[in-house]
Amino acid sequence: MSVSTTKETAMTIIKSYAAHDAGAELELYEYDAGELKPEDVEVEVEYCGICHSDLSMIDNEWGMSTYPLIAGHEVIGRVSALGGSAQNKGLKVGQRVGIGWTASSCEHCDACISGNQVNCQHGSVPTILNRGGFADKIRANWQWVIPMPEGIDAASAGPLLCGGITVFKPLLKHHITATSRVGVIGIGGLGHIAIKLLRAMGCEVTAFSSNPSKEQEILAMGADKVVNSRDPQALQALAGQFDLIINTVNVSLDWIPYFQALAWGGNFHTVGAVMKPFEVPAFSLIAGDRSVSGSATGSPHELRSLMKLAARAKVAPQTEEFPMSRINEALQHVRDGKARYRVVLKADF
């Protein structure tokens, strides 16, 4: 809502939920967003997913949070205003769009010019540090405002913009096709989306889970096989099988059996933020031309590609919905590990 105070100044008040200190509960917070920048787009929030990264930022686990902090970076909403330079970029007021982890990038460094804006050499700006989506409105540079294709389910699409692109990026990076054999470690918020995407692409999918009680649920997601990650013999029996193994967990495991499970030319790719360094025996890589890699989220083009695939193949995260007014309850639900498998907030300001 825009309210003119004088002829010289204008205020745009945005309502949000913010943490005022590390680890604090979120409180209602209003701020003046000021004049819309020429290349920015303002989006009225309909839904916003909760990611573990939101908790990390609220708690300042990464040492870069500033307060009051408005988290939320899995936004689905409708364009409510366009900056002057954003008006000829293909976006229209009223159009349904999404905003993920990144809110802006410099647009002129080698990474940006080559289409790798997520690796902007001058520092892309995370949506959370740009004032995020736990709000009635949010702003971002037009490149990072992703058009939603027809047929996408708005209520569940938000997590694709962070968790989804995080596991989709390795599939693009390693040229995964329908003939590929792929393993996924950890079937939670990231892993379950990876299985759904791999199934949509026609891959042979093996899920590694430490919870045998989830086997039938994981098979229903699209996995061909579920392997108990705590069973050394089951892991050893898979030696030399996988073109790609994606790790989504952030705890340290015995990684050697997974390296050994790679086929020749295979890759072990981590998107889980494991804090303890990986111990990689050189010969587990040298023998068979194997490699270990990682990746961040994706570029605007990769995000658009993911959303088109999700709409066409009906790939949707499994979500639980809370009204945004119950945001602290929803955050605690995620903290307690009870989410099955992503939590989405519906704006109700």
TrEMBL record:
Residues 23-345 form the Enoyl reductase (ER) domain. GO terms for molecular function: alcohol dehydrogenase (NADP+) activity; zinc ion binding. Its cofactor is Zn(2+). Its EC number is 1.1.1.2. It is an enzyme of class 1 (oxidoreductase). Keywords: Metal-binding, NADP, Oxidoreductase, Zinc. Pfam families: ADH_N (PF08240), ADH_zinc_N (PF00107). The keyword Transferase does not apply. It comes from the Bacteria. Belongs to the zinc-containing alcohol dehydrogenase family. This is alcohol dehydrogenase (NADP(+)). It comes from Cronobacter turicensis (strain DSM 18703 / CCUG 55852 / LMG 23827 / z3032). The gene is yjgB.
